[in-house]
Amino acid sequence: MNQVKSDIRNFKTGIRFSVIFISILWAIKLIEAVLGEFTFLGIYPRTLEGSVGILTGPLVHGDIFHLLSNTIPVFILITGLFYFYRRVAVPVFFLIYVMTGFWVWIAAREAFHIGASGVVYGLISFLMFSGFFRKDIRSLAVSFIMMILYGGNMIYGIIPGNLEVSWESHLLGFLSGLFCAVYFRSSDMVKTKAQLYKDEEEKSFVTRNYFTFNDTVNVSYKPKKEPIGKIYTYTLPDQSKDE
Fold this sequence. Notes:
The chain is built from eight helices and two strands; from the N terminus they run ααααααααββ. With about 240 residues, the chain is mainly alpha-helical.
């Protein structure tokens, strides 16, 4: 029952986080409709002014169709990230976000790189490879689902082709997700029912050993005076000796 409640809580948290992020993307696009395009906020490699795009580039999209193509994957992937890997979801998301942008700034072509596609590829990569590194059934199931849903498109997206598409963001996002899968491979392990049962057994064992008292313990009092710093403790004297 506790596991079910935890899963529901994680699912709701993932939905909230994804909705907030997507709302930011759409709010920026609406502002662009009034003020003009924000392409200049993209990542422009190896320039000081272009480094701002590490933080702002994934939030800017070329047009509505570009944003729509990222909206549904962002929603699904962020929700899945929080549902299956709640404890590391926040650091994984922000590491993928920043690492992808930084690597694009270091190594990509000289052009403005915009859009959340790099983050999308990073999340796909993390969810795809985490199961193989963690080797538990639930994570492996997630990995295979990711391979079926996105495997073919991912390979196509990281291959240089259309010059108007930032394949560098796709590739470097993929690598950042792989890095996070390796780095967090031992964190927030998804526990099977057998593992949960084993944990309960261990807790029961500890309780029996540390909270079971022996009735034959002989407690005796001896007069003594022991200084502990400036505080003195006294024990009860043996009254039988005075009689």
